[in-house]
């Protein structure tokens, strides 16, 4: 039987336990492909990255739950999903509201074309790269 393809998109700029949790869940489902947002894609909604794309890719490739890393050029997953036709897309529930809510709806619609499934594990509480970034920049003000 052919291994299932699992797609996980992320900025991967500040890897934290929440990311590892998502990747571990993804690995249990099959072959994990991370759609790593390019520097421009991250900039479009989070601001400047701490690490450049190639460095973020090296970090992700060193994680045992990741099988492959490809570029995701936009916040919109459609191009990569259409090419890969993954069996599963995994993303924490945090994207149900806010800047990524419309992206989520597009993912659901795109997956329908080949009966792909969106899996949304509970968000890892009290940690997010956005919170870490905010804390870092606030510490630089003093």
Q: In brief, what are we looking at here?
A:
By secondary structure, the chain is of the alpha/beta class. The chain is 41% helix and 17% strand.
Describe the structure.
With 142 residues, this protein is an alpha/beta fold. It has a single domain, classed as HUPs (Rossmann fold, 3-Layer(aba) Sandwich), CATH 3.40.50. The chain has helices at residues 17-29, 39-43, 53-61, 78-84, 101-112, 129-140; strands spanning 5-10, 31-37, 68-72, 88-90, 117-119. A 5-stranded parallel beta sheet has the order 3-2-1-4-5, sandwiched between helices. Strand 4 (88-90), helix 5 (101-112) and strand 5 form a beta-alpha-beta unit. The longest helix has 13 residues, at 17-29. The chain starts with a strand and ends with a helix. The mean pLDDT is 89.
Topology:
Layout: E1 5-10, H1 17-29, E2 31-37, H2 39-43, H3 53-61, E3 68-72, H4 78-84, E4 88-90, H5 101-112, E5 117-119, H6 129-140
Parallel strand pairs: 1-2, 1-4, 2-3, 4-5
The CATH superfamily label reads HUPs
Per DSSP, the total helix count is 6
Work out the count of structural domains: 1
Strand order of the largest sheet: 3-2-1-4-5
CATH class: Alpha Beta
- The H-and-E topology, N to C, reads as EHEHHEHEHEH
Major beta sheet, specifics?
Answer: 5 strands, parallel
Uncertain regions: pLDDT < 50 for 5+ in a row? none
Structural class: alpha/beta
State the helicity in percent bands: 40-55%
Q: State the total count of DSSP E strands.
A: 5
Strand content is 15-25%
Shape: globular
First-to-last CA distance: 57 Å
* CATH structural architecture: 3-Layer(aba) Sandwich
CATH topology: Rossmann fold
**What's the gyration radius in Å?**
15 Å
What is the residue-mean pLDDT, rounded to a whole number?
89
């Amino acid at each position: 039987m052919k291994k299932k393809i699992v797609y996980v998109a992320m900025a991967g700029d500040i890897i934290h336990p929440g990311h590892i949790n998502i990747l571990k869940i993804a690995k249990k489902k099959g072959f994990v492909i991370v759609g790593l947002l390019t520097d421009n894609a991250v900039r479009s909604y989070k601001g400047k990255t701490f690490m450049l794309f190639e460095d973020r890719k090296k970090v992700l490739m060193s994680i045992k739950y990741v099988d492959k890393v490809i570029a995701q050029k936009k916040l919109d997953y459609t191009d990569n999903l259409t090419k890969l036709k993954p069996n599963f897309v995994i993303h924490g529930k945090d994207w149900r509201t806010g800047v990524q809510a419309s992206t989520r709806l597009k993912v659901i619609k795109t997956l329908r074309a080949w009966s792909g499934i969106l899996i949304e594990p509970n968000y890892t509480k009290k940690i997010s790269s956005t919170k870490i970034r905010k804390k870092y920049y606030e510490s630089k003000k003093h």
